[in-house]
Every structure is written in C-alpha cells, then in structure tokens.
Amino acid sequence: MKSLSKVLIFLLLAFQIISVQAQNRPDPQPAPDTYESFKLGIAGYTFAKFDLEKTLETLQRTDVHYLCIKNFHLPLTSSDDEIKAFHALIKSADVTGYAVGPLYMNTKEEVDQVFAYAKRVGVKTIVGVPTYDLLPYVNNKVAEFDMNYAIHLHGPDIDKFPDADDVWENVKDLDPRMGMCLDIGHDRRNGKDPVADLKKYHTRVFDIHLKDVTGSSKHGYSVEVGRGILDIPAFVKMLREVNYTGVVSLEHERNMNDPFMGIAESIGYFRGVIAATRK
C-alpha cells in the first residue's frame, strides 16, 4: 500500500511539474520576415470569394499585416466615410492596406478614377493593368499624384504585359515611378526567370506577387508555394541582394472557394525558407 502511495505522489508531482512547464512556455516568436528589409503581405485577389471580415481573420491567423486592397473589398465609388470605416476595421486587425489593385484601365476616364481613388484611400502605390496606348497618360498622372504605378504582368493569359521584360521595355524611358508588380508565377509561365528579372529590374519593382506554378508555359497552373517549379530559396536570396524594401504579397489562386489551408501552407513555407537561408 505504501508503495502505491509513493507512486501516486510521484505521478502527482510529475504532473504538477509538467503543468508548470507548459504554463511557462515562451510566447510565439516573431515571424522570420520581421527581420528582413522586405515585408510579407497578401494580395486581396486571394479572397475574391470572401468578405473583408474573413480576409482579416485569415491575415490575423497567419500573422500577416499587409494587404493589397482589391476593389471588391473597397469599391472605387466608396465615400470618404466608407474609406474611413474600412481603415478603422483593418487597423483593428493590425493590418495596413499598402496599395490598391490590380485595377484594369482601358480609358483615360478610368485612369482618372483610379488615381483619384488611390489618393482618397491614402496609398502611394497602384497595381494597375493599363493598355499600351494609355502609358503616356498614366505617366503624366504618376507625376501629378506622386505615386508609384506597378504594372501587373500576366504571363501568357492576356495580350498585354506578359512578363517583366515586356514591362521594362515599355516603362524604361518613362517616369522612374512607372514600374511593375513582379508576379513571379506569371513571369515563369511566360518562360522567364523571376530571380534574374528581379536582379535586372529591381529599381522598377514596386510590388511582388508570390506564387508557385507547375510549368513554364501557359499550361502551368498555380499551386501552393513550394510545390511548384520556382526556386523560392534563390528568390529570397535575391530579395536580400537587391535590398528590396517593398511588400512580397502571396496571391493564392488555387482552390479559391476554400483557399485557407493553401494560404497557411504557402506562408509557412515561405517563412521557413526565409529562416533557413538567413546567414
């Protein structure tokens, strides 16, 4: 009986020690991107099937604090009061809206509307998709509003701005605030090397869309970051080499009716690469 009592006392003490140790575990450590010159964000298009509340919940759960604002979450026709309420809501989730877009522009009137919208929202970067013939007009607006204009490249899917080379050729002689949103998945799907393109064009890269794809052609499709053919470790190293100080935003385009596991996997993989490649 005494032996049994000793065993019970031992087990009780062991349980108490384990409980105390569990209670004293350190808080979660800062995300690896906290220590980089660049910031990690999520592109609003990722949440095309979801409202702003669900979007912000996902950013909070993945510890991401930067959002590229899409117009289905904050319409171009929003009033000043609606914009104010939008900013209050995202601030309550510790999220900053750092840019707007991608936004498509086919007329001068649409260019005017987008620039006025960006000014009222209070951002300094527009991720846009203009027509080629609108570039001189957009160039004038960039100077007028003192904003960066990041042309979103789209790979082989549409007939304009397929890759970083094309964007560069069309903006290199324009205002230095005319540049690109380097979508590394679409760039790769057009047969290009996003790592080399970041190195060549980094002075005109104002936003980055992070994704992975299965192939270097139109038949390649989006997958979770780390499951495709992109060399993500090399890309992270190049971000450091060129001292990129903007946002790298995950644009997750797989299982868009239920993207949340894919978002978490992609964010986790990217952060793991950041930590593993840090010297």
Describe this structure in words.
It is a single chain. The chain is α/β, with parallel strands linked by helices and 279 residues long. 43% of the residues lie in helices and 18% in strands. The protein contains 10 helices and 10 strands. The protein has helices spanning 2-23, 52-61, 80-92, 108-121, 135-145, 164-171, 184-189, 194-201, 232-241, 260-277, and strands at 39-43, 66-69, 96-105, 125-130, 148-152, 178-183, 205-210, 212-213, 222-223, 247-250. The strands form 2 sheets. An 8-stranded parallel β-barrel has the order 1-2-3-4-5-6-7-10, surrounded by 6 helices. A hairpin with an 8-residue loop joins strand 8 and strand 9. Helix 4 packs parallel to helix 5 and helix 8 (194-201) runs parallel beside helix 9. The chain is globular. It starts with a helix and ends with a helix.
